[in-house]
Amino acid sequence: MKRRTVFFGTPEFAVPIARATAEVSDLVAVVTQPDRPRGRGRELAPPPVKVWAESQGIPVYQPERLRDGKLAEILAPYEPEVAVVAAYGRILPKDILELPKRGCLNVHASLLPKYRGAAPIQWAIVEGETETGVTLMQMDEGLDTGDILAVETIPIDPEETGGSLHDKLSNLGAELVRKHLPAFFEGKLVAKKQDDSQATLAPILKKEDGRLDFRLRAENLERRVRGFSPWPGAFTYLEPGARDLLKIHRVRPHDRKTEAPPGTVISTAPLLVAAGEGTALEILEAQPEGKRRMTAQELRAGRWLAEGQVLDPDRHGA
């Protein structure tokens, strides 16, 4: 007989993990965030986990608040043995953590204790990690601080983006649940405390995180472009007065050395921008505001960038 579970999750990342939970347990209820306005029309749209759960005939709950005790009252009659949590988007209060007989398990997209927090996928790329993975953790009241039950790892490819790694870890999280949740029910997993001295944080992303600071070395900038794709996206500005936005889609470090101030276009063929510590960043694809995505050759032909021009001059004091 399958054990009774409830699932907490919201975005597309959580859907494969919810599906896996339903495969290896009796998933009796799903909790997700409320519908939110999306798109240009700002019409209410359901979270992906809600769409999936309703297609499976699983009851869905979307509380606006968690700390009023009402959700615990709603879920108590389901008598779950465990709750599985993946990218729900809110910290669970004590009454929810203690409701399932064997507590709540979180599927977190990093190798804990590294990258605790809301955006572990993106920050792992930005910080230059060569591998990452997913961790099954027994939840407590802290931020991703609970005991580790199981881990699955994968390498981070040199061309990895935040979007591509998101999809890989979503599927890996599903495999983690298929493989280890039955073992948890059978008492075969041994909990291991995290080494808090090794913890790092992965704070929630803001739009401004995508603004490139050319005082960083070229390799650091290249990782930010990949890590922040597709959101918040990497960008800079063309002129100090017009403040024209330039989205940066694809770059690579170049071996040219330069003494030019950071942000200065030092060549248009190839399209090179001076970066920190004398390094140079080659822009391969970018997109002027209101225009389509362009190659470096197209940017050069359209005279969007010229040698000697300084990108984001307000930031760099040019």
Helix and strand arrangement:
Layout: E1 4-9, H1 15-24, E2 26-31, E3 36-38, E4 43-45, H2 48-55, E5 60-61, H3 70-75, E6 82-86, H4 94-97, E7 104-108, H5 120-126, E8 131-138, E9 148-155, H6 162-185, H7 218-227, E10 234-237, E11 245-254, E12 265-268, E13 271-274, E14 280-288, E15 294-295, H8 296-301, H9 313-316
Parallel strand pairs: 1-2, 1-6, 2-5, 6-7
Antiparallel strand pairs: 3-4, 7-8, 8-9, 10-11, 11-14, 12-13, 13-14, 14-15
Helix pairs in contact: 1-6, 5-7
How would you describe what is shown here?
By secondary structure, this protein is α/β, with parallel strands linked by helices. It folds into two domains: about 5-200, 3-Layer(aba) Sandwich (Rossmann fold); about 205-315, Methionyl-tRNA Fmet Formyltransferase, Chain A, domain 2 (Roll), CATH 3.10.25. Helix content is about 25%, strand content about 25%. The protein contains nine helices and 15 strands. The strands form three sheets. It has a seven-stranded mixed sheet. Strands 10, 11, 12, 13, 14 and 15 form a six-stranded antiparallel sheet that branches. The protein has a two-stranded antiparallel ribbon with strand order 3-4. Helix 1 (about 15-25) packs parallel to helix 6 (about 160-185) and helix 5 (about 120-125) runs antiparallel to helix 7 (about 220-225). The longest helix has 24 residues, at about 160-185. The protein is elongated. The N and C termini lie far apart (about 70 Å).
